[in-house]
Design brief:
The structure holds 2 protein chains of 2 kinds. Chain A folds into 3 domains: about 5-90, no CATH class; about 95-245, Rossmann fold (3-Layer(aba) Sandwich); about 250-375, 3-Layer(aba) Sandwich (Rossmann fold), CATH 3.40.50. Helix content of chain A is about 50%, strand content about 10%. Chain A has 20 helices and 7 strands. Chain A has a 4-stranded parallel sheet with strand order 5-4-6-7, sandwiched between helices. In chain A, helix 13 links the parallel strand 2 and strand 3 (about 240). Chain B has one domain (about 10-145): Rossmann fold (3-Layer(aba) Sandwich), CATH 3.40.50. Chain B has a 4-stranded parallel sheet with strand order 2-1-3-4, sandwiched between helices. Chain B contains 4 helices and 4 strands. By secondary structure, chain B is α/β, with parallel strands linked by helices. The longest helix of chain B is centred in the middle third of the chain and has 19 residues, at about 75-95. Chain B has helices at about 15-25, 50-55, 75-95, 110-130; strands at about 10-15, 35-40, 60-65, 100-105. The chains are: A alpha/beta, B alpha/beta.
C-alpha cells in the first residue's frame, strides 16, 4: 500500500495538531523526545522518510490510548504498523528484545515444522481429539523456556484455563499443530509472515472440525478477531475469550471463598481493542470474598504493560511498568490480576527489579480463579 | 543421502576456539568443507536468537565453541553459553528440531587437532541425521510446505 493511502485510511490528515496523543502517550511520559503528534506532522508535511529511518517508529506500543482520546479519530497505531511494513520493505527493522528469539520462533513456526508443544498437558485436565471447542494456547510453551529466569510458568495458565473449561463441562481440543498467532509479526511490519501463520492456524482449526475457538491470550484473540479476516478472509468458526465464556456460568464453577483484595490490569488488546472490560471483572467479583479495587487508570484509560511486539524494550518499558506497579500498589490490593500472558511477563520482569518498593504480586486470571476452584 | 553436504554454522570465540581453527589451518589439518565459522568475542555472546536464525536460514547443524571452563577470557562467558545452550535445546525440542543438530564444545587455542576432529565428527553426525526440515525447499523435496492434519491430544 502506498504511504499516502495509509495516511488517508488512518485519518491522519484530520490531525488537528492538538497534542492530546502526546499528552496521553505512556512512551512520551518517559521519553520526552517521542511525540505521536510530531510524527504525524512530519509525515503530513511531506517527509515520510524521516519516519521510516527513525528508531521512534518502533517506540509506539500500539496501546491505542491516543486513539481513544483523539478528537479526530486518527488511528495512530494502525498508522505506525503500516509505516513499519513500509520500513521493513526498505530493510529497516526495530531493535528486537530478547535477541530476536521471538521473531525467529515466529518465522520458523510459519514453516513445515512438527512441534512438540503439548507437553504441559497433565493427566488431571480433560481434552478431546475432536469436538466443537478448540482451545488456542498460543506461544505459552515457548514463553516457559525463554522466561524461565523470571519464574513465570506460562503454561500453568493454559492448564488452569483448561481446568476452568472442564469445570463448566468443556473438554476442548488442544492441537500440537497450532502456531503462534503472528500478532507480533504484524506489529513488526511483517505482513507476509503474519499471513503465513494465519493461514496455517485457520487450516489446523478447520481440520479439527471445531465450531468455536476459545482463547485465553488477548493478543491472539485480537489477531483472530481483528486481523485474520483482513488477511485470510472470514473465519469458519466462532471466537470467544474464556472470560466471556465463564462470565455467564459462574454458578457452575462452584467457587470457594478467597479473602483477598485484588486489582485488575486491563490488557490493551482485550480492553481498548475489543472492548472487553466487564467480563474479566465479573469473573473476579464472582469469587466469594474477593474485593476488586480499581487502579486510578482503568478500563479505557488503563496503562499499557510497557512493551509490545517484542521490540524496543528498554528504559521506557521499565518506566511504564514501574508506574503501573505503583498504581497497583496505591490501591492497597495484594494482587494485580491480568488476563494477558505478556502483561504478566512484562510486569513480573519489572517486579523483579523493583525490590522492596512494590509489595503487590502479579497473578494471571486463570490461576487466580483456579485457586478459588480449589485446584 | 550420500551426496548430502551439510551446511554447518560454527560459532567460535575469538580467544580460544577461533585460534584453534587457525592452528588447524596453518597446520594443514584436513576436515570437511561443510562449516561456516563465525567469530565472536566470546561463546557467551551466542544467543538463542542467533542459533535459531542459523536454523531458519537453512543450517543443518550449529556448533558453538568456546574456551574450556575456567579458561574464559571474560572469566564466565562460557558459563553463560551453557545456560543459552540449555534454553535453546528446549526451544528446538518444542519446534521438533533434533537436539543432535546443536552441540557445544570447548576448544582451546592449542587444540587445532581437536578442532579438525570435532568438525569431522559433527559433520558425520549431521550427515547421519540428513537435511534439516527447515532447509531450502528447492534442495530437498521433503520440504514442500504442507499443512499437517490437526491432531488432538488425549488427556
Amino acid at each position: 500500500m502506498a504511504f499516502d493511502e495509509v495516511v488517508r485510511l488512518t485519518r491522519s490528515t484530520y490531525c488537528l495538531d492538538c497534542g492530546k496523543c502526546t499528552g496521553s502517550c505512556p512512551v512520551a511520559r518517559v521519553d520526552v523526545t517521542y511525540s505521536p503528534r510530531a510524527t504525524i506532522e512530519s509525515v503530513l508535511s511531506g517527509h515520510p522518510e524521516e519516519l521510516i529511518d527513525n528508531q521512534h517508529l518502533w517506540s509506539c506500543l500500539t496501546c491505542r490510548l491516543c486513539t481513544t482520546r483523539c478528537p479526530s479519530g486518527v488511528d495512530y497505531p494502525a498508522f505506525v504498523v503500516a509505516a513499519r511494513a513500509e520500513a521493513r520493505k526498505a530493510g529497516v527493522e526495530g531493535i528486537y528484545a530478547h535477541n530476536a528469539v521471538m521473531q525467529q520462533l515466529m518465522d520458523i513456526m510459519g514453516r513445515p515444522v512438527q512441534q512438540n508443544r503439548t507437553g504441559w498437558l497433565t493427566d488431571d485436565v480433560q481434552t478431546s481429539v475432536r469436538g466443537d471447542d478448540f482451545y488456542f494456547v498460543g506461544c505459552l510453551p515457548y514463553f516457559d523456556v525463554i522466561f524461565d529466569d523470571l519464574g513465570v510458568v506460562s503454561t500453568e495458565s493454559a492448564r488452569n484455563t483448561v481446568r476452568l473449561l472442564n469445570a463448566v463441562g468443556i473438554a476442548p481440543i488442544v492441537s500440537n499443530d497450532e502456531r503462534c498467532c503472528g500478532a507480533d509479526l504484524l506489529l513488526n511490519g511483517d505482513e507476509e509472515g503474519f499471513r503465513r501463520l494465519a493461514e496455517i492456524n485457520v487450516q489446523v482449526i478447520a481440520d479439527s472440525g471445531a465450531k468455536r475457538v476459545i482463547l485465553s491470550c488477548p493478543e491472539c484473540y485480537n489477531a483472530f478477531r481483528s486481523d485474520y479476516p483482513r488477511y485470510v478472509g472470514p473465519l469458519p468458526f466462532e471466537l470467544v475469550h474464556f472470560t466471556e465464556l465463564l462470565a455467564g456460568r459462574m454458578e457452575a464453577l462452584e467457587l470457594g471463598e478467597l479473602t483477598e483484595t485484588v486489582t485488575y490490569h486491563d490488557p490493551c488488546r482485550l480492553g481498548r481493542y475489543l472492548g472487553i472490560y466487564d467480563e474479566p471483572r465479573a469473573v473476579i467479583e464472582g469469587i466469594p470474598g474477593v474485593e476488586l479495587v480499581e487502579m486510578s487508570k482503568n478500563r479505557a484509560n488503563a496503562l499499557c504493560c510497557g512493551s509490545t511486539g517484542w521490540v524496543n524494550c528498554g528504559r521506557c518499558a521499565k518506566g511504564i511498568q514501574m508506574e503501573r506497579l505503583r498504581q497497583a500498589q496505591t490501591t492497597g490490593a495484594q494482587r494485580m490480576i491480568t488476563a494477558c500472558p505478556k502483561c504478566r511477563i512484562h510486569l513480573s520482569c519489572a517486579l523483579k527489579d523493583a525490590g522492596d518498593e512494590i509489595a503487590v504480586a502479579v497473578e494471571d486470571l486463570a490461576g487466580f480463579l483456579v485457586r478459588a476452584l480449589g485446584g | 543421502m550420500s551426496d548430502f553436504q551439510p551446511r554447518i554454522v560454527v560459532f567460535a570465540c575469538n580467544w580460544c576456539s577461533y585460534a584453534g581453527a587457525d592452528l588447524a589451518g596453518v597446520s594443514r589439518m584436513q576436515y570437511p568443507p561443510t562449516t561456516r565459522v563465525i567469530r565472536l568475542m566470546c561463546s557467551g555472546r551466542v544467543t538463542s536468537g542467533f542459533i535459531l536464525e542459523a536454523f531458519r536460514l537453512g543450517a543443518d547443524g550449529v556448533l558453538v565453541t568456546g574456551c574450556h571452563p575456567g579458561d574464559c577470557h571474560y572469566i564466565s562467558g562460557n558459563q553463560n553459553a551453557v545456560v543459552t545452550m540449555e534454553k535453546t535445546t528446549q526451544l528446538l525440542a518444542l519446534l521438533g528440531i533434533e537436539k543432535e543438530r546443536l552441540r557445544l564444545e570447548w576448544i582451546s587455542a592449542a587444540e587445532g587437532a581437536r578442532f579438525a576432529r570435532l568438525m569431522t565428527e559433527f559433520t558425520a553426525q549431521i550427515r547421519a541425521l540428513g537435511p534439516s526440515r527447515l532447509g531450502d525447499p528447492d534442495r530437498h523435496e521433503l520440504h514442500r510446505l504442507t499443512v499437517p492434519d490437526a491432531v488432538g491430544v488425549d488427556a
